[in-house]
Write a structure and sequence with these properties.
heterotrimer; A alpha+beta; B alpha/beta; C alpha/beta; B: alpha/beta; Transcription Regulator spoIIAA; five-stranded mixed sheet; 3 helices; 42% helix; globular; C: alpha/beta; Rossmann fold
Chain lengths: 895, 77, 124
């Protein structure tokens, strides 16, 4: 769906809401000019907007509504209850159309009837003639540039279809097939483009009627220009749009298409009778019809047909009536109109008639978003189920009773209710788990186990992770959160389970995560496999000496590369998920922890819709939970302390996500006591993280950054929440593992701001290949600032450390061989220059001397596992196109 | 292949290409009573089709190709 | 009688791959590596039923080839398809404006290729 359309839909819903509100208000103040004017403006704007798109049914109804409101506004028509009802009904229709547009991107042709009825009803209120001619069923095609000027089917030239053909097409249209009238006017010079319009038109399948017109411009045959096309082809087809688009894609501007509604075919043919049918007969059959005696009616008609000449117009009309009774038994108005037409012997002007529904308006069907178990349960039951469960959650969230202890009775009651509920939705297998959780809750005398169970299970198909050891239950809380988010198969967002969403349409396709992962891996392999082509090209040239073939391979590589990149892009999009996936568990967590600590905290979440790759989101979860707990534990003060410091007793914790170019920025901001740089300095010194001279010189900001240093923990008391030897250094390394960065800013007494910056996705890493000591290594490109060749003469040794000056800046130089504990010296090139990789490590530029640079490649970085996993200095390994393994360095750890 | 011009009949063989139109127009003008024989014809380029439509010559034989027959019926009736 | 197709592309791989597909389908295929070579073949008596040409080629590109071929006697009405890697509308339109009948988008699979050729080449 394009942006404009999306914008229209969202805005239109606001307008509809506004219209409904204003109408309600008008009921109380029917004379309020102000309300009237505003109401008119809403309808007017909505109508104007809908005109931007091709939704004729919607626009028509809105147009009539606007005219009516205009009359009300000007006092020509007075406001009434009926009028409000009629307008509301019209808006309901518009709203239903918008649902359909949202679902399919267009409106179906089956709304013509309702639309016309509503329009006429609105116009009736306006006391205006209702027979305003409105074009019906305008269909324009804009896909693939096949735009055509819209004309109404009622303006189509007469086709003189044989009755049987017309009936067949009518039946097709009633059955929901698209019957198109198509006109092809080849451009005169088309023969000189190698086209044969006649051949093209003959390829259109399922043609029910055809016509060719010769627009001969020459006055005499001798003057006729046989190589200038003067033909116009017209036909009726039930071929699919895709098929037609495909066939006609070279000549879209020469094609005119109109969708023909079923009713257009209802056109009795034949000789007009000298004498009209006996009026008694007509009265008779009308009576049968009105009394719904259909069998008698058909029998009577059949008898009449046997007695009359089949060539007569009236016979044809009677056959049509039989046909309509058979094909559209519920379309009484059309049947009746045709019966009445027997008197005049004229085909009714269907386009001017109030068109009844060709097909009943279909309500949006339930979408199969929720797992199978649930779809077997009625929607109503599910709504109730959710209500009851929500109520149980509320009960469990209530503060403990006066004694401070939870009454066992309350827990038991909740447990019993839950068991009942789950039985009712055929999930009796959960009963056991509920009983376990209840038992645990009773032992702990706390509602938490039940709450956790509820949060994790709801109606998902997975076994909940159960808290078993209450001593570790806080850890389990986190563990469960982690389990919840790594297990994306069970997306347990409450709104997805809510009854409303089951009815509401969703165009989302739920795909098993494993499949996505598999696809991702395959695409990854493809990216790697395609890297083999440059090698092949290289070999073709150097080994086999076929330069031509080498060039060919490279050209093919470019094509495959493009496709592979697009595939990658697409799969990345598929894997994107909103951060709300992690954020949503914070309210509960913050509530639980703050309560436990006796602190008062207001949690604010922002930017929950920000999206990032699933892996990133997953990698984010752990550090984020840790940071939030840290803020609660160490950042925010106790209420008394806050009051004493002149702050509100309630502390504020803001978690905000936003996207900055290709990175996600997550900020965790609290207005707590901030970090005292002096305390940090002292601690760091005591722990031997910094020496005395550093202690003297270090800036406050640098001091604050020390919290990320390994083995740093500031908690004065080891609480059971944090401070189990897991410090911010773990957060940092977790974030850096996915190529993220973490930073902190703090002001003493004011608060702390922690920010994580993470890439949007991490599947493909662009690395530069470098050579050192006859081996090749990869270095992630996002760490490489630049590559330079430093002449040996420019390398100075300061304090036994090699440095060079680069653009007026001193850059320390390290030799890769040294870093990897190799004794060999780096090799310079012929000009005695060293290949130097300038990398950014913790905000500083460092030069790494290598032997040579090679190309950059896209790789799928696989972290090393097992014993190798503990090896510092490497971020992982990747497979190269020639099948060899590339070790990818991690300069951060290396230096 | 192509159109074979006999004394009083133009015989259309299989597929009639774009370039045939000029000769066809000329022949039909010269032989106002000449008939057209489509029996073996499978397709006629639009250029010749429009010539036929402008003149509507008498038809000696309809095409065996059913689809072409339908179209020519519409075009030349 | 099999239809003859003149296939013009500077990529030998592309020539081979498309040629192979076409020959399997029963066409007779002549190839040329650029517009100049294609024009030389057309001027020296080759009378294909269809020309399929790449757009970007050294010496003489597809657009120029289309214009020059159309000016040759006997090729006024020949169907010509452009063969481009670009799926963008501009390139196709450029070809159409120069007198191409339609276009093929590379890489084009066997089935698509034959379907499209059958659509523009009567009797194929």
């Amino acid at each position: 769906m394009n942006n404009l359309l999306e914008q229209f839909l969202s805005e239109a819903r606001d307008f509809l809401q506004g219209i409904a509100e204003k109408l309600m208000q008008l009921e109380n103040e029917p004379n309020s000019t102000e309300l009237m004017v505003e109401l008119f403006r809403f309808v007017h704007t909505l109508k104007g907007n809908s005109g931007l798109f091709d939704f004729p049914e919607m626009t028509r109804v809105l147009h009539a509504s606007e005219d009516l409101m205009d009359a009300v506004r000007n006092g020509r028509v007075s406001y009434s209850q009926t009028l409000a009802d009629q307008l509301l009904e019209a808006m309901d229709f518009v709203s239903a159309l918008m649902d359909e547009i949202e679902l399919t991107g267009k409106t179906g042709s089956n709304h013509v009837g309702t639309s016309t009825e509503l329009t006429n009803a609105l116009r009736a209120l306006l006391n205006a003639p209702s027979a305003v001619h409105v074009p019906v069923a305008i269909e324009t095609y804009t896909e693939d540039g096949l735009a055509v000027k819209a004309i109404s089917w009622s303006e189509l030239p007469p086709m003189d279809l044989p009755e049987s053909t017309a009936m067949g097409l009518h039946r097709c249209a009633v059955d929901g097939e698209t019957v198109l009238w198509l006109q092809y006017t080849p451009e005169p010079e088309c023969f000189f483009k190698g086209e044969d319009p006649f051949f093209l038109i003959r390829q259109i399948p399922d043609v029910a009627w055809r016509h060719i017109i010769l627009n001969n411009t020459a006055s005499t045959l001798a003057e006729m220009d046989v190589f200038s096309s003067q033909l116009v082809f017209q036909l009726l087809t039930i071929a699919s749009t895709e098929e037609l688009d495909d066939l006609l894609r070279y000549v879209p501007d020469q094609i005119h298409r109109v969708k023909v509604p079923a009713l257009a075919f209802v056109k009795p043919t034949g000789n007009s009778d000298d004498v009209a049918l006996d009026e008694d007969f007509i009265i008779n059959i009308l009576e049968f019809f009105d009394n719904d005696e259909i069998e008698t009616l058909t029998n009577t008609i059949n008898t009449m047909l046997e007695l009359s000449s089949p060539e007569l117009w009236s016979s044809s009309a009677l056959r049509w009536i039989l046909h309509l009774i058979e094909t559209e038994p519920d379309n009484k108005p059309v049947q009746r109109t045709l019966l009445e037409a027997l008197r005049t012997q004229k085909t009714p002007d269907w386009s001017a008639l109030t068109l009844p529904d060709v097909e009943p308006t279909q309500n949006v069907v339930a979408s199969p978003v929720v797992s199978v178990n649930i779809s077997e349960i009625s929607d109503t039951l599910l709504v109730y189920f959710n209500e009851v469960i929500e109520a149980q959650k509320e009960i469990l969230s209530l503060p403990a009773s006066s004694g401070g202890a939870w009454s066992a009775g309350r827990l038991k009651a909740v447990g019993a209710t839950l068991i009942g509920c789950y039985r009712a939705v055929q999930r009796a297998n959960e009963v056991e788990h509920i009983e376990d959780a209840l038992k645990l809750a009773l032992t702990e005398n706390s509602p938490t186990p039940l709450l956790i169970w509820l949060d994790n299970s709801l109606l998902d198909t997975h076994e909940p992770v159960l808290v078993e050891d209450h001593e570790q239950h806080e850890e389990h809380l986190v563990a469960n959160h982690l389990a919840a988010q790594t297990d994306a198969k069970s997306s347990r967002r409450p709104e997805e389970i809510g009854g409303a969403n089951i009815v509401a349409a969703s165009k989302t396709l739920k795909v098993d995560q494993d499949k996505i992962d598999r696809l991702m891996n395959l695409i990854g392999e493809m990216v790697v496999a395609k890297n083999a082509l440059p090698y092949l090209a290289n070999r073709a040239e150097t080994v086999f000496g076929v330069r031509e073939l080498s060039r060919e391979i490279k050209a093919q590589y470019a094509v495959i590369n493009r496709v592979a990149e697009e595939m990658q892009d697409t799969i990345m999009q598929v894997r994107m998920m909103p951060v709300s996936f992690i954020f949503q568990r914070f309210p509960r967590m913050v509530r639980d922890i703050s309560r436990k600590l006796g602190k008062e905290v207001e949690l604010v979440l922002e930017g929950e819709a920000t999206e990032a790759d699933k892996n990133i989101i997953e990698a984010l979860s752990d550090p984020l939970i840790h940071i939030v707990r840290n803020s609660l534990d160490h950042g925010l003060e106790m209420p008394e302390a806050r009051l004493a410091a002149g702050k509100f007793a309630t502390g504020k914790l803001l978690i905000r996500a936003s996207q900055e170019s290709d990175r996600v920025l997550i900020e965790i901001i609290d207005d707590g006591k901030g970090i005292d740089p002096d305390v940090i300095k002292q601690k760091a010194y005591e722990k031997g993280l910094i020496d005395e001279s550093t202690l003297e010189r270090i800036s406050d900001q640098d001091a604050v950054n020390l919290v990320f240093a390994a083995g740093f923990s500031t908690a004065d008391v080891i609480s059971d929440l944090s401070g189990r030897g897991v410090g911010m250094d773990v957060v940092r390394s977790a974030v850096e593992k996915v190529n993220g960065t973490v930073g902190i800013e703090s002001e003493r007494g004011k608060g702390t701001r922690l920010f994580l910056s993470l890439p949007l996705s991490m599947a493909v890493t662009n690395v530069m290949i470098i050579e050192s000591n006859t081996q090749i290594f990869g270095v992630p490109m996002d760490m490489v600032v630049e590559t330079v060749r430093v002449p040996r003469a420019h390398i100075r040794t300061i304090k036994q450390k090699q440095t060079t000056v680069l653009r007026g800046r001193i850059v320390p130089l390290l030799s890769l061989n040294d870093l990897l504990a190799k004794s060999e010296p780096q090799l310079p090139n012929e000009d005695d220059e060293f290949a130097t990789l300038i990398v950014r490590v913790h905000g500083e530029h460092v030069g790494i001397l290598v032997d040579d640079f090679r190309e950059t490649v896209d790789i799928i970085l696989k972290p090393m596992t097992g014993i190798l996993g503990g090896l510092p200095g490497y971020s992982g390994a990747a497979l190269l196109g020639d099948g060899s393994v590339l070790m990818v360095l991690n300069p951060r750890e290396l230096i | 292949m192509a159109i074979e011009y006999k004394k009083s009949q133009a015989i259309f063989n299989e597929f009639i290409g774009v370039e045939e139109a000029e000769a066809l127009l000329e022949w039909l003008q010269k032989n106002p009573k000449g008939k057209v024989n489509f029996a073996e014809c499978t397709h006629i380029h639009a250029s010749s089709l429009q010539v036929l439509m402008a003149i509507k010559p008498p038809i000696a034989a309809e095409p065996n190709d059913a689809d072409l027959a339908v179209w020519l019926n519409i075009a030349l009736k | 009688m099999p239809k003859t197709i003149l296939l013009v592309d500077d990529s030998v791989t592309m020539l081979m791959s498309v040629k192979n597909n076409l020959e399997i389908a029963g066409f007779k295929v002549e190839t040329a590596e650029d517009g100049v070579k294609a024009m030389a073949k057309l001027s020296s008596g080759l009378k294909p039923d269809l020309i399929i040409t790449d757009i970007n080629m050294p010496n003489m590109g597809g657009i120029e080839l289309i214009k020059k071929a159309r000016a040759l006697p006997g090729f006024r009405f020949i169907p010509i398809l452009t063969l481009t890697t670009e799926s963008n509308q501009g390139r196709r339109d450029e070809g159409k404006a120069a007198g191409a009948t339609g276009w093929l988008v590379k890489p084009v699979g066997g089935v698509d290729l034959l379907k499209i050729i059958k659509q523009v080449l009567p009797g194929a």
